[in-house]
Amino acid sequence: AQSVAQPEDQVNVAEGNPLTVKCTYSVSGNPYLFWYVQYPNRGLQFLLKYITGDNLVKGSYGFEAEFNKSQTSFHLKKPSALVSDSALYFCAVRDTRGGSYIPTFGRGTSLIVHP
Amino acid sequence: EPEVTQTPSHQVTQMGQEVILRCVPISNHLYFYWYRQILGQKVEFLVSFYNNEISEKSEIFDDQFSVERPDGSNFTLKIRSTKLEDSAMYFCASSEGVALGYEQYFGPGTRLTVT
Does residue A40 have a pLDDT over 90? Predict the structure, then answer.
């Protein structure tokens, strides 16, 4: 079975500071990992994904995420936060073992960037 | 940039009434999905659809729910007899493929309120 956890309901960071939004996962096989962002009154937008290869994945809007197999984590990062990054962030996982193509989403983490 | 669209943006209905939520997926995508998000809770998978039939469905997707692709562009979710607990944001999504590495593209959602 696949599952994903986002341990923080909310992350607060000052503009210009680095940000991290945490995600851990559990799978039976290998993970395919995704980050999505949701702005107010909008649907989820794809940010980046890890399938295989380099553990550091770069995505849209300057975001990146680091896959850590030993810690079963896929934390989202950005070196310098912008106020416009304030949104709801979702981590999602698909398991290569299990037969389903449907991702499981985390509960979401609200990122608030203060000016 | 192509996007998934959904109508209406907000639907208010009385308990026991039928509702149809409409979606227009991205034109060259082949796989379609419905998710829901109850306020403050996680994004939950309802159903996936490919080649005019349901590919996967969750336990939530019971006999009260149905999906249809009535023409070459629309993808609809019907709830036959709405319950109070059906109140949620409903998201349509589409993807180019269904393999584990494909990301999904989400619409802006329809907020369904059942009174």
Answer: no
